[in-house]
Amino acid sequence: MDSGHHLKFLSADVDLGSALNIDYDPLLVIVSYLVAAFGSYAALTIGEHLRIGSGGRFPRLWLTVGAIAMGLGVWAMHFIGMLAARTALPVTYDTLVTGLSIVPAAVAGCVCLAVLGRNDAGPRRIVLAGITMGAGIGVMHYVGMAAMRMNADMRYDLDRFLLSVAIAVVLATAALYLAFLARRMRNVRTWVVLVMSAMVMGLAITAMHYTGMWAVYYFPLGSAAELSGIDTTTLAVSVMIASVSIISLTIVTLAVSRRFELARTEAQLNQLQQRMKLDAVGQLTGGVAHEFNNLLTIILGNLHFLEENLQKDRTLNAFVQDALAAGHRGAELIKRLLSFSQRQLLTPRIMDINKVLTDPGMPLGDAINAGISLTIRPAGELWLTEIDRNQLESALFNLIINSSEAMPNGGTLTIETSNAVLAEDYAAENPGVTPGEYVLLSVRDSGSGISRDVLSRVFEPFFSTKEVGKGAGLGLSMVYGFVMQSKGHINIYSEEAQGTSVHIYLPRSGAAGQQAIVSSATGTQTQKRRDRILLVEDDAGVRQAGSRILQGLGYQVFEAENGASALAILETHADIDLLFSDVVLPGGMSGPELARHARKHNRRLKVLFTSGYSDTVVFNAGAMQDGETVLDKPYRIEELANTVREILDQPQYSPA
Hints:
5-stranded mixed β-sheet; elongated; 5-stranded parallel β-sheet; alpha/beta; single chain; 656 residues
């Protein structure tokens, strides 16, 4: 009797005509494939749940269950295939080897699911996992063959042996790659792709087995010996139990998969509804804020004019100062609302966020309470991003203040940066996210945390959990608006009594260099120079207030209410020094378009834009041409004076 424990290949002197003939029960062959496909589907579905994070707090348990499902599928398929083989000699199986033969397939399955469960799994890793799975299937098969006990000598054809392993590797790789593609096929249901992948994996297992059986020859031994081990009846019962277990696992997996799919869809729907709600509120807020900006521009402009003319009357001047203070507070509130509505005027510059965090002029520690430990961890070789520095600093301070207030008794606050890649599957799970490379800015605290019912509303304007009078509820709304307007993404993770983590993803800039960021401040200048300014504003009240201020500063002012009338003035007054125009104008011509036409009449014309909010369809502050500047509404008289004087004192603009 040959126990089959040693893998032996055919030699040239072997007479193949003396080998036993083997045929197969077609029904059992079909059953063997179905069992392999069922086990593969259960395992691959678990791998998908591990990837999207629905494994909950027990990912290792799920990984173990998936590996067992894959191992059982390969093991049961093999021994059903062995039962399907009909030979003239009785067969038994070594108990220990039969039991251990499941290990290679289970280990290989564990490796494959661990790879599939990673969001950063790429084609290279999938191929390596496929090779591992194919090798695991092959090892399991030939260990299972070694468990056979029969009065025959087993010999293998080397070419067919190698072919069986190659079939397992190629088809297993194809099956895993198909499962990998499931995360990219947005128009096809995931379970459909997983079924197809399981069918291919089942084919890999089955084709490898029957090719391996084709590779073996049984040569009867002259003397019969008593066979020990598991007989075919006991093996059939064991295989049936394994098959029932696989089917049960598949049914459970289907049920769990359905549950997770519903929960996932509900979460995506909630995210989409929340985003739509924020967009709708932002649209309304932006429109209202823009109208109030115009009103405040008129009010503040006239108050500044009164201030200039009531310097000697202390009583009336005090009333004016109170009104100005209220107006400026209103203007600041409007800016916050515009920030949330993603309609603020941004001036993005390419920068290294690490340099912002470590800038001595950024006293981040001043914003935290005593007893809080602040740690800044800048990443090495951080990518550049193109954003508005002032808004980034404002967002940082808002987050630091919120974290500080969440730790009244002290704690730890960590700010760190890193490079991040948001994959397509992550974007599919988070509506509005664009896949790609990002610079990640994280702010983590060990504070009181945020409850789940509150967490879903933290970005809403005027929503606050603080006591009345201790916060307007616009801090996180401003951060949200800035990030979204910068084409980024923001996530907040929090557990009550555990702390909060805010992750801001800002798009990586494709530029190789970094532009210098220079800020300068000058005092109010009211030199009486007869420079000529063309003021273009459709709102009569705003136009009159602006004209009155500019004339009071000593400039000669021409007024126009739209682009056409402005061009008419430019045709007759080619010596105008500065075009001061609103961004959004009636009549089909925007402020930037007017500037392009105006420079055809006066190539050295300087341009100052003003607006209550940015309309990205017609204006992009980051794409302004040389000689163009932007001023937010409502503006203070000193801001207008300084900006106009600074522009006019710049070297002459000379387009190429």
